[in-house]
Amino acid sequence: MAISNNSSGAETPLLVEDIVDGCLDYKGRPVERTSCGGWKSASFIIGVEIAERFAYCGIDSNLVTYLTGPLGQSTATAAVNVNTWSGTAALLPLLGAFIADSFLGRYRTIIVASLIYILGLGLLTLSATLPSLNTSWCQKADTSILCSPQLQVIIFFFSLYLVAFGQGGHKPCVQAFGADQFDAQNPEEFKAKSSFFNWWYFGLCSGTLVAFLILNYIQDNLSWVLGFGIPCIIMVVALVVFLCGTTTYRYSVKRNEKSPFVRIGQVFVLAVRNWRTSSIAADKEAYGTLPSAGSEQYKFLNKALLAPDGSKEHGKVCCIGEVEEAKAVLRLVPIWATSLVYAVVLAQSSTFFTKQGATMDRSITTSVKIPAASLQAFISLTIVLSIPIYDCIFVPLARAWTGKPAGITMLQRIGTGMFLSAISMALAALTEMKRIKIAREHGLVDKPEATIPMSVWCLVPQYVVTGLSDMLTMVGLQEFFYDQVPNELRSIGLALYLSIFGVGSFLSGILISAIDKATGGSGGESWFPNNLNKAHLYYFYWLLAALSAIELALYFYFAKKYIYNRATRQMQS
User: What family does the entry list (predicted)?
Assistant: First the structure.
């Protein structure tokens, strides 16, 4: 029984229910449920995420404009570079999560990653000052090597990928650390944790929305130096805010045993080594001891319970719990794989959607134009408006109907968003066909710099549907990959979720490059020429819509067969 000191110096026993199992406070003491964690701690962490997303999206959303503008790259090359960087930034959380779960812990990893993030943003700001050096100071000094445009490109891409490394450590750990502030074994905190993922994404999109509206305008109309410098300052503020919450956080306790990566890896290695061992012997070893219905899946991993000679020699075999951990991770693979096309679709909102908008009438008044990249604000605005409706109205109504704490299951939520994602591509294709038709009617096909007499607000429906899709699928994937992995692998779980979008961005870049070479080779007409009025973007959008439909059918098949972990089934029952 835990003991605490009251004001009179007498020791008062605390109920076991008041102690959060597996957590300590910042002084290494057992955590009382009411003193640490919960929404008080989560609010600091959500605030940090708002600032981080403001900084990241301030760069990501308008990167294609910077590459095709100051750096002078072609549309297709810029799109590939954006997808490559975005993909790298989304895959690096796997490295950050590994470091956090195996060595530093989430709290320390967040601090180190934040410092790397700030350094990258500072160098990015420096790179944006170099063009002005070329035109002034460089003319007065014989320093052509130091002032060459090539130096600007080197520093720019180095700092850009440094930001990706910082984000790679920051992203999975901050969200997992936020979810750690809620005890999934407590019914009330379990509901609060599900709600946390909604409000986490609400905060994330709030930061993104402000970046789209303010930073994109500053970058397009005032200065790229200022447009990169402000995110750097914001990240410094975010680090200070995070440190201010140190005394309120719950810190997960690491068990003194093998790394979870070693445990799970050993299961697969032993299962492969024992592939000749009788399945009957392995099943007999596991019979009556496997803890859940999901244990009946991937029974070939039961061979890790036996030594190569068919015996169970201590130290050379895995235990039941380790085999179940490996199965839990393996069950995620089909859901991960059938989410990739969704990620490819999402990648278009910061590349071709933006280039579409740049050719259209963006006038708000006679003298003010909305930056093309700021149109992405409609995605964030849709999410910011829809999440309170979803969490405060839909979830209670659905909960009363289905009896499930979250109203609907995580996989149902994800699938609904994927369906809307396919709809967004169909809308984008129809809008692009209309834009090309108007360009032809007005004789603007060979005038890439001319403004198409079509309001940019015609793009709003595809942005809004994309926002609704994100609100459902992105939040659902976050909660799913956090909830369905072993406790010690939750940073990795969220990194796996982020890796969907990393691989999706790479696939988008590969697809664009392949189509560009296939259609533009031998003097052919590429789908993605620099003159967007001669492009065939609508072909590409229809292709993505068709791939989304195929993906959705596969997703429904695997989602129907998926078996949730035992804790989730108990809460949903």
Answer: Belongs to the major facilitator superfamily. Proton-dependent oligopeptide transporter (POT/PTR) (TC 2.A.17) family.
Residue among 396, 412, 61 nearest 228 (CA): 61
Residue 217 and residue 339 share a domain: no
Cα 136 to Cα 128, 130, 139, 363, 551, distances in angstroms? 14, 10, 5, 34, 54
Q: Evaluate whether residue 567 is within a structural domain.
A: yes
DSSP assignment letter at 298: S
Q: Yes or no: say if 92 and 165 are a contact pair by the CB < 8 Å rule.
A: yes
User: Residue 87's closest CA among 541, 548, 513, 508?
Assistant: 508
Give 23's strand partners: 252
| Tally of CA atoms within 13 A in the half-sphere of 467 that contains its CB | 25
What tens digit of pLDDT does each residue of 94-123 get?
Answer: 888 888 877 788 888 999 999 999 999 999
Are 197 and 294 contained in the same domain?
no
Residue 127 contacts residue 156 (beta carbons within 8 Å): yes
Asked if residues 346 and 504 have their Cβ atoms less than 8 Å apart, the reply is: yes
What's the domain count of the chain?
A: 3
Residue 48's nearest CA partner among 249, 343, 252, 346 is 249
Same domain, 270 and 419: no
Q: Is the pTM of this model over 0.85?
A: no
Write the CB contacts of 220 (distance below 8 Å, at least 6 apart in sequence): 62, 65, 371, 373
Q: What is the pLDDT of residues 306-365, one digit of tens each?
A: 766 555 555 567 777 778 888 888 888 999 999 999 999 988 887 788 888 888 888 877
